[in-house]
Design brief:
The chain has about 250 residues and is α/β, with parallel strands linked by helices. Helix content is about 35%, strand content about 20%. It is globular, with a radius of gyration of 23 Å.
């Protein structure tokens, strides 16, 4: 449900916008912000304009409503093709690692697959970029460490919050955003759009039920003493529990 909810930039996406703007500041680039949503999403685009983005595009049409990640990635990939036709080649696409509502993390990789871009997920640092050769080096945040990857554009990068600290809008930026009207693309703006792949009709995901899990009460015990005493106490309690039998501890 989005009615009555203020439109804001997804927290993770904000870090992607910031990284794109840093590349623009350092090397020169054109930053286009693209989103799919209801008309109220134009406020989120204006927020990006106030930070320094060159243009904001709202892909909005009732036919897009009810889209799951599969249909959303199709529409956004189609919009990226149109953006490339309008403003030139798209070398780097930044996206948050996931949305703040669905939390699936599927849209970014889905777009990369559809437009045949290399995808770099969970990026926490852009170490180097050579705009002449297109070579870039990034650090990916993995569960068991950090992976350093060197590759070439075009790429799609999903980012984590460790990547940077988003900037505050400047006064000239806020004034520009106040006067700016985001570009709106509807289904009529995509000549080759396959309507069977958009909205509810293009979404195989079915949400049959949602609920809030009941809180689970867990018995806890506070230990005291030296580190060695508390460590020994933890081991004694683990061996005295059912965990020993379930894990076949000797």
């Amino acid at each position: 449900m989005r009615q009555g909810v203020p439109a804001v930039v997804n927290y993770f996406d904000m870090h992607g916008v910031e990284e794109a703007l840093r590349i623009k500041d350092k090397y020169g680039a054109r930053v286009t912000v693209l989103t799919m949503g209801p008309p109220s999403a134009d406020k989120a685009l204006k927020q990006c304009i106030s930070m320094g983005a060159d243009e904001g595009v709202l892909v909005s049409d009732r036919a897009f409503a009810g889209a799951d990640t599969l249909a959303t990635s199709y529409v956004l990939a189609t919009a990226i093709y149109k953006a490339a036709d309008t403003w030139g080649p798209v070398d780097i696409i930044f996206a948050g690692k996931q949305t703040s509502d669905g939390d699936t993390g599927q849209v970014g990789p889905g777009i990369a697959c559809r437009i045949d871009y290399e995808q770099l997920t969970y990026v926490q640092k852009v170490e180097d970029l050579n705009p002449e050769t297109g070579e870039l080096t990034v650090h990916r945040h993995l569960e068991d460490g950090v992976e350093r990857v060197k590759t070439k554009t075009p790429v799609l990068i999903t980012v984590v919050t460790e990547l940077n600290v988003p900037r505050r809008a400047s006064l000239p930026g806020m004034l520009r955003a106040a006067r700016y009207t985001p570009i709106v693309w509807t289904t009529n703006d995509f000549e080759d759009l396959d309507r069977s792949k958009i909205g509810l009709h293009g979404s195989p995901t079915i949400v049959s039920k949602t609920w809030v899990p009941e809180p689970k009460h867990v018995e806890t015990e506070m230990l005291s003493g030296s580190a060695q005493e508390m460590s020994s106490a933890v081991i004694d309690r683990l061996f005295a529990s059912e965990l020993k039998q379930s894990l076949n501890w000797a």
